């Protein structure tokens, strides 16, 4: 038997000892120890851990890398960040957005990511320019990764008159997913109208829904519950995701537990974005301060699928970030206190399998028949990969090597100067 590519001596979670992974075309054909047959190309991965490629479930590619051209966010709050962004958004051109996004897309691929879901601002300030820019960046990188675009009404829908029409246009012009920002509206009644509008638009377009929900420390905001209710009523729960949900940290235990059970029943997903939210939330608290992270362990225990996203890279919201899912997983492990072997595996799934389920990616995983989107880590266990933030030795997309990283280090001690 001849295959297009064989990865020899790979460690794969759930399998004992080293195995060989045979790839035919874009798919994994077979996995076995000492696999007979030959590959047109073969890579000896020398006992490294091979996992499914990472999935980035929540990022804002239209805003990345603007940190150096805008004034700093002095209060550190979400409100000031949005205010600061207005000027950038007014000035942004399609080409400039396309270029900035491209840099981060390529960085994400080198970090082992082959699927990205990006929110893109849709409002009366920038109109559909950001969407055009990101759609162009997506077209520039079709050989490297898949990108889902979320039409995101950052300024609200009813608070920013005209955005409802722009949202419809965005969905006609290449956006895949309907976004939302209900807590940005005046009150819960307006938030419900906002949520209903977005869900109805999604149903009409047969699209998923992925909203920014209750990204505030204010425990009085409970639009998550409205989203779950409205999604359940339309039988759209598994196609609905709630991002951020920071207010969940401020809710009382009883309400939080009931709401989480409701989300589990409806099949609504949650995406936590701890890099940005640990930085932004609780800014006006004295100690003890709210950390702005949803109740990850309770969500998981209730059976809610939870993904973990980067959210921001070098913008008014967050000055760091490299679109590296291993960094996100390490931060989520700290934020949600995931430290046992099972919990560490969960943190990794939140940027892998569970994120893939949220994005409804078919044929995901290291198994025969799955798409050969793989990452070869310079590590033998997931915990070591997290702990050492191991280089991604090779990244494969649809059976083709699309990235490689070689890290060279040398420790120089007295008497052993480098040759
Ligand atoms: Zn976000």
Number of E-type strands: 16
Shape: globular
* Class from helix and strand fractions: alpha/beta
CATH topology of the largest domain: TIM Barrel
The domain count comes to 2
In brief:
The chain is an alpha/beta fold and 419 residues long. The protein has helices spanning 78-91, 94-110, 129-140, 163-172, 188-205, 223-233, 253-266, 274-280, 296-302, 325-335, 341-349, 353-358, 382-388, and strands spanning 2-10, 19-24, 27-32, 38-44, 49-52, 54-59, 113-121, 146-152, 177-178, 209-213, 240-244, 269-272, 306-308, 374-377, 392-397, 400-404.
Q: What labels would you give this structure?
A:
419 residues; 13 helices; 2 domains; Urease, subunit C, domain 1; binds zinc ion; four-stranded mixed beta sheet; 21% strand; TIM Barrel; alpha/beta
Structure description:
The protein is of the alpha/beta class and 419 residues long. It has 2 domains: 2-52 and 365-404, Urease, subunit C, domain 1 (Roll); 54-358, Metal-dependent hydrolases (TIM Barrel). It is 34% helix and 21% strand. The chain has 13 helices and 16 strands. The protein has helices at residues 78-91, 94-110, 129-140, 163-172, 188-205, 223-233, 253-266, 274-280, 296-302, 325-335, 341-349, 353-358, 382-388, and strands at 2-10, 19-24, 27-32, 38-44, 49-52, 54-59, 113-121, 146-152, 177-178, 209-213, 240-244, 269-272, 306-308, 374-377, 392-397, 400-404. Strands 3-2-1-4 form a 4-stranded mixed beta sheet, with no helix packed on it. It has a 4-stranded antiparallel beta sheet with strand order 5-14-15-16, with no helix packed on it. Strand 7 (113-121), helix 3 (129-140) and strand 8 (146-152) form a beta-alpha-beta unit. Helix 2 (94-110) crosses helix 3 (129-140), helix 5 runs parallel beside helix 6 and helix 10 (325-335) packs across helix 11 (341-349). The longest helix has 18 residues, at 188-205. The chain is globular, with a radius of gyration of 22 Å. The N and C termini lie far apart (46 Å). Residues 58, 60, 119, 212, 243, 273, 311 line the site of zinc ion.
